[in-house]
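Quiz preparation item.
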């Protein structure tokens, strides 16, 4: 069984952590070609008490991008869905923590989500703000 502490330690060893609280952390990943992408991981309890991880990565400010195009792009992604939270357009994905293999069931979805979010950000904003 994987714990939240194991996930946090895994991230700390591999990525630049920008912010951290008891149940949330935000960090930056290098996506190549001089680009980076921020990602947040939230430790969420489920209604039945099972723990979940929510991965999210910003695409741009919701007021500054074509949200319809974001939804179209998100519809082609293997994982994740589009959302707007606190004015930011995000790609989000949730995985159960209980039976999680950090390397196979956290790092792979994380890489896929961040790669897609960075590509969407590049297409929709022509920038690298997140």
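Solution:
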């Amino acid at each position: 069984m994987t714990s939240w502490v194991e996930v946090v330690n895994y991230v700390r060893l591999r990525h630049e952590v920008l912010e951290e609280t008891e149940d949330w952390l935000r960090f930056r990943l290098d996506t190549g070609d001089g680009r980076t992408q921020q990602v947040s991981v939230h430790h969420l309890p489920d209604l039945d008490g099972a723990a979940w991880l929510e991965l999210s990565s910003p695409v741009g400010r919701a007021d500054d991008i074509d949200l319809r195009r974001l939804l179209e792009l998100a519809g082609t992604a293997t994982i994740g869905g589009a959302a707007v939270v606190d004015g930011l357009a995000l790609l989000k994905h949730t995985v159960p923590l209980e039976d999680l293999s950090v390397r196979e069931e956290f790092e792979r979805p994380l890489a896929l989500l961040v790669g897609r979010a960075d590509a969407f950000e590049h297409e929709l904003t022509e920038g690298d703000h997140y």
